[in-house]
Design a protein that fits this description.
hydrolase; alpha+beta; HotDog_dom_sf; about 25% helix; 6 strands
């Protein structure tokens, strides 16, 4: 299967039938899986709070890493893998942990033989930018 076919198959399975993934810890839900672009949503919860009582930055970083990496995965051929080499995140505003929906979208910028780059954005339900980032992925052929 291509990367896109694999992701569509894997996420079509009930959670109890697929291997656990990091997104399960934060309740990520697939919004879209297209070639070169992926969107996941999540709900901010108190279990994701930092000591100040707002959403921990690592949650948005995980959401960005997931959507950007999966966007790269959608462009890969059968049997080709990837891994994050570098992740850069910019935080724009704090997020309360009161059940707000966040949507992360990742898009491929460049796909080469040995590396790929992607960009991502996290917005709240009102479309306000919460965080954005870039990644470089190593391609394993």
């Amino acid at each position: 299967m291509t990367g896109l076919e694999f992701l569509r198959f894997a996420f079509s399975l009930p959670r109890e039938q697929r291997p656990p993934v990091i997104g399960d810890l934060f309740g990520f839900e697939v919004q879209s899986l297209e070639e070169g672009e992926v969107s996941f949503s999540m709900v901010s919860m108190p279990s994701g709070a930092n000591p100040l009582g707002t959403l921990h930055g690592g949650v948005c970083a995980t959401l960005l890493d997931s959507v950007m990496g999966c966007a790269v995965h959608t462009r890969l051929g059968p049997g080709v893998g990837y891994g994050t080499l570098e992740l850069k995140v910019n935080y724009i505003r704090t997020v309360p942990v009161d059940g707000r929906t966040l949507i992360g979208t990742g898009s491929v910028i460049h796909l080469g033989r040995s590396t790929a780059t992607a960009e991502g954005r996290v917005v709240d339900a009102d479309g306000k930018l919460v965080a954005h980032g870039t990644t470089t992925c190593m391609i394993y052929s």
